[in-house]
Amino acid sequence: MDELQVITRIIIELISNSSGELSARLKQRLNATLISQGRPALDEKRFGFRKFADFLKGPLGEYVKLEWPQGSGDVRVTLKHDVAPAPQRPVSRERRAKVDRPTALRSDVWQAFTNPDTSRKRFYNLITNRVIHYVEGANDDYQQLVESQPADFIEIVQIPEEAHRAWMREFLNLATVASDDLVTLQALVGSAYSSDLNAAFTKTLGDRGLQWRQMRTLKISERIQAWAVEHNIDPDNLSIQPTATKGPVLDRPAAPSGSIMSPRQQAVRLLELMSDEEILNSAIPVLLNSVLSKSKF
Q1: Per-residue pLDDT tens for 50-77?
Q2: Computed from CA positions of residues 226, 231, 236, 237, in that sequence, does the dihedral angle turn out positive or negative?
Q3: Which residues pair with 78 in a beta bridge?
Q4: Is-contact 95 39, C-beta < 8 A?
Q5: Which of 14, 81, 6 is nearest to 215 (CA)?
Q6: What single DSSP character describes residue 279?
């Protein structure tokens, strides 16, 4: 999809569910979306137009309608009825409750792109479709495997902190937030990004939290899909039930005879591969729940 097609699709999506958008506001939202996807902001002069309104009348003339005000003011942009998407069926409450993470994406793939630990290297094995992690400089077995078979791996570069903050700013520009909360939210956006900061941002949004999770999920999913296309990876292999592939099942080199790890050793090994935040938020609650459930009887 070329640049103009991408811009056209985004503009149609931005105004498809509204009664119209002022030209300046539409361009602001368009550029925020383009930047969040790692693309350059729109410069209409590159397409031969002096103003954004002229650009809309030109390449997008068959999709959008422009209405000039009687006096001074901005141009209102609406979608022509013949290209408006069909109305969507209402989403059930049960379905809305499950939008925090796309069910199509594997959790290991999701974590590889979103884990904020900058010291952790992440790679996707083209042969087995598995994701591996290791801490750089720790002389890990996984590191040795990647270095010995570099053609089998594609590095996964985590989504940068600034992208997360840009999405937060974009959401605040689009959403109507109480002024008291807005001060707190803007302060959070200006802080160093982390999973805890995202949780605080979501909580402060209150009823808007679900909408933010939906938007963030979409942004992350788009990043992952774009990465898959860039590296010629079948997106189905990133789903919860990836297409079966031939080759070895395990990424880690086979352990020498007599050195098979016990369940306890395997658990310790898994904990070593997790960040402190992952251990605190995921591993400890699961283990604690297991221990407490047994202690009741």
Answers
A1: 999 899 988 888 888 898 888 777 889 9
A2: negative
A3: 65
A4: no
A5: 14
A6: I
Q: Is the pTM of this model over 0.70?
A: no
Residue ranges and CATH numbers for the domains of the chain are 3-83 (3.30.420), 94-255+267-279 (no CATH)
Q: Please answer whether residues 150 and 182 qualify as being in contact, where contact means their C-beta atoms are separated by less than 8 angstroms.
A: no
C-alpha 29/C-alpha 124 separation (Å) is 33
pLDDT tens-digit map of 121-137: 999 998 888 899 888 77
Is residue 208 within 8 Å of 175, Cβ to Cβ?
yes
121-157 per-residue burial string, b: 16 or more CB within 10 A, e: under 16: bbbbbbebbbbbbbbeeeebebbebbeeeeebbbebe
Q: Which two tokens stand for residue 133?
A: 């992690």
Query: What residues have CB less than 8 Å from 92, skipping those under 6 apart?
Result: none
The DSSP element (H or E) to which 147 belongs, if any, is: helix 141-148
Of 20-24, 84-88, 128-132, the one with minimum mean pLDDT is 84-88
Helix (H) or strand (E) holding 120: strand 120-125
Nearest to 82 by CA among 67, 66, 68, 65: 65
Query: Which two structure tokens, joined as six digits, stand for 98?
Result: 């499950």
